[in-house]
Amino acid sequence: MNEAQKIQIFTFLSILWLSGVCNYVLAYDNLHLIEDATAGDREAQYTLAHLYYKGLGGVDRNIPEAITWFRRAAEAGHVDSMYDLAMIILDDQNGITRKEESFYWLKRSADLGHGDAQYALGRAYGLSQPEKGVYWLKQAILNGHSEASEYLEEWCESDSIGCD
Q1: Residue 47 to residue 14: CA distance in whole angstroms
Q2: 103 within 8 A of 94, measured Cβ to Cβ
Q3: What is the pLDDT of residue 1?
Q4: Which stretches of the chain are DSSP H helices?
Q5: Number of neighbouring beta carbons within 10 Å of residue 114
Q6: Would you state the pLDDT for residue 128?
Q7: Other Cβ atoms within 10 Å of 15 Cβ, number
Q8: What whole-number distance in Å separates Cα of residue 131 and Cα of residue 125?
Q9: Nearest 5°: CA angle at 104, between 98 and 106?
């Protein structure tokens, strides 16, 4: 066996070993995360929800479980969870439409200053309630949402809705 083959075997075995260590550490971290989330830590609930939603960190993708953890974090006052929960429910991946619940969480997160929620709410009101749409888009702009500024500008140029 030449030196290059020895290096390849060593590298391969090292990768296998590191992979096993990483999986062990990841499993431990998830157990700790689940314990914290179950105990009511809203940041842990939010993180766990994202793992389930995206199927990351050794966790299988599970939308109903993600919704459960987003809802728990949202109910505990986690603003990003409120927004994410609203968007996931609105996305309707499970064929269940809960627009009222989605709007409830979107409005709560917008009221608490979440720029993306304010932008989404401004667009949702759209032309049906332009005054509210303009209000929420302006709130999103105040929170630094660049798309809100562009959208409001285009909207005001194309319609005479009093965007002042």
Answers
A1: 30
A2: no
A3: 64
A4: 3-38, 42-54, 63-75, 79-91, 99-111, 115-125, 130-142, 146-158
A5: 24
A6: 84
A7: 10
A8: 8
A9: 100
With tokens 């939603």, the residue in question is 53
Residue type, 160: S
Two tokens, residue 30: 């998830």
In the structure encoding, which two tokens stand for residue 41, read together? Answer: 């830590």
If you search the block for the tokens 């157990």, which residue do you land on? 31
What pLDDT score was predicted for residue 24?
40
Whether residue 48 contacts residue 69, with contact meaning beta carbons closer than 8 Å, is answered with yes
pTM comes to: 0.76
Structural tokens at position 9: 């075997």
Q: Say how far apart CA 133 and CA 125 lie, in whole Å.
A: 5
Q: How far apart are CA 108 and CA 38, in angstroms?
A: 24
The predicted structure's pLDDT at residue 79: 97
Distance of alpha carbon 105 from alpha carbon 22, whole angstroms: 36
Nearest residue to 136 via CA among 125, 147, 151: 125
CA atoms of 61 and 55, how far apart (whole Å): 4
pLDDT means over runs of 10, the chain (164 residues): 63 51 48 88 94 88 93 97 93 67 94 96 87 93 91 78 64
